[in-house]
# Entry
Amino acid sequence: MISQLAKAWPITTLDSPEKCRLPVSIAIDANGSQLVISRFEDVVWDFWPYIPQENLALHSKRISWEITLPDGSRLTDPLHAELLENAKEFIWSLWVDPIDGRKRPSMLTLIIKCKSTIHLLRWMISQGMTRFAHLNGRSLDYIPVAKISSKNGLAGETTIRHRLQTLEDLYLQREKLKDALSAHPWPEQTVTSLAGIILSGGYILGTERILDRVAKDLAQAALEYVENKAKRLLDTRDAVMAVEDAGRLRGLTTSHISTFYVSPVARDYGFNGARALNDELRHLRNACYIIINLFSGIRNSEMMSLAINCISHGKSYDGSTDLTWICGAIYKTGQRTHKWLVPSVVEKAVSVMERYSEPFRAKLLAEELMLVKSLDVTDQEKKKSLACRLATVRHQKNSLFLGERPRDHRQIEVSSNAAINYQLKQFCQKLNICGDDGKPWILASHQFRPTYAYFIASSQLGDLQYLREHFGHWSVDMTLLYAQGATDQFEIDNGLLDEIMDVKREKQETILHAYVDNDVPLANGEHWLGDWRRTVRTAANKDELIRELSGTITLNGTGHSWCVGSAKGTGCGGLCVFEADMCVDCNYGIIGPEHLPVWREIAWQQTEALSMPDMGTPAKVRTQRILEKTQKVIAKLEGNL
# Structure
């Protein structure tokens, strides 16, 4: 269908009637025939056939040109006909004939670019400009406007970059448009440098992760729903639905059924009426979302791609460990299937959601049959909306996170990103999950990914076992090398890997800084850390040198030491995870003050073992050897050696 949309370019060579009838989105109907959804002349360009993300509402998959301008007029008014046509040509040119050197943007990217263009159009009208060519010589005036958010605060860095990039794109597309910038908007600057100037003064845009304490409270509250409350809630829901169906068969009104049948059943199961039951059911769905996302780190769009039977099982490489995988889709760099390693509790949450979504899935199957029949007897204009709904139903009929939209005649669909974020905040408020300020934590779907990355990278055993299976390689660092264009037995989630690596690098630098910039006692690692300490002390820029030194090693945690060896070629290959005493004389181990409590516990265990009367001589000899090594480590860390 791409060739069908792009075949008439360059659009500037067409007369108005031909241009107006050009299709900008095409779908395939139930009979396999092409159905034009939107044309160039339309007020709304609907791109739902090209945007697969289920968590996006339909209105976010379209461009509406009916824009209100600062003077109260609309862009679709006859007064602005030329500007509207030029704006459409510019946006459409980015897709059918991309800027030289760039790949064709997705339709979702095109919508984002249109939003930035609309911001520019509003400013142009306020300044009396009716053509893009009028921006020549005045582009710099737009920079302070680009930084203002809709709430008159400071816009985010990404938003500012998009807005400024629009002017550069108008210049770069000048040969393909009848109205564009003929001169570079800022020949001595770049979008990056301009955004940097705008964002000076300490403004930093970052993705907020969930605080450790909040994440613990969140996980405990969600687990309580998934493991202990789910069966009772869903049993009650099914009982309520049974009496609702019976009431409808008898011809009773919805109000009568709710008052005299539904509420009494809910109270029989221990709930304070039907509303209380529905609130708890929503919290159950939120709890399942939290468990799945907290223990997988996948994006919200990937969460909404999960369907029934998305759990699979396997074995670790050595066959010793049972593994659980969750299967879905990644949309970040083009839609493709993917699977993520997850703990068994995620499988429980998925199982709950399969039962939770069962009534919704049944209704979607019934709706699918009805829509197929309706398409054969409807007119062409109505056919567009029916085809859109049919495509949605077919994509989502097996999805997990389904719900009703009361404002759309109780239409069933996958929850939108906005709906998910609202419900997550409600969950924190209801369960009294608060931040340091004592107020309910403002939970959002985008917080789970950096939180997951933080906990995995910070876990002392994280990249020795869990990440080996999660990414298919021994450690994060090794995987990073393989990820540069290499293939794996399953596709790598490079984005999540990068976020984990960023956190791991920061943590590694922090750990190393604590060792080389002071004289903390060491039980191992003195032979090379001593040289680094002397080098750092005389360095002009300590932080920069420590950062460089950190980049030369791979720091893995064992729980009782830091290991700078690797799985192959150097060190024990990770066996010291199970044999702590191997680290004491190893050239690749670092044992510092933070490990002292662990070694004290090891010493206590060995002492207890030696007191056992039934221990044989070989075991006693080995235990005594470990105890002596342990006592030596403790003495060094306590400063007694």
Remarks:
- The first strand starts at residue 23 and ends at 28.
- The chain has three domains: 2-198, 212-357+399-431, 508-637.
